[in-house]
Amino acid sequence: MTVLLDRPLRREINIEGQAYTLTIDPQGLKLVPKGRRKGLTLGWTELVSGDAALATALQASLED
Q1: Would strands 18-25 and 40-43 be described as parallel, antiparallel, or unpaired?
Q2: Is the pTM of this model over 0.85?
Q3: Whole-angstrom distance, CA of residue 48 vs CA of residue 2
Q4: Rounded CA gap, 61 and 63, in Å?
């Protein structure tokens, strides 16, 4: 049985010894270093259309 995603779901994940917060919501997903506000955001339409790598690279280039 599946449940409709109607509110944000947050989980902590450890990647190479660093803690991150993964938020999954109806708009997409967001991965942020723990204690920070800015991180990588990926919308569901980008993921489904195959533009995920392009969107991630563009967002990373804008943060510099």
Answers
A1: unpaired
A2: no
A3: 19
A4: 6
11-15 average pLDDT score: 96
Output 52 or 39, whichever has higher pLDDT. 39
Q: Which of 7-11, 17-21, 34-38 has the lowest mean pLDDT?
A: 34-38
First to last CA, the chain: 43
Residue 53 φ then ψ, to 5°: -65, -40
Among the listed residues 35, 33, 43, the one whose alpha carbon sits nearest the alpha carbon of residue 13: 33
CB 37 within 8 A of CB 52: no
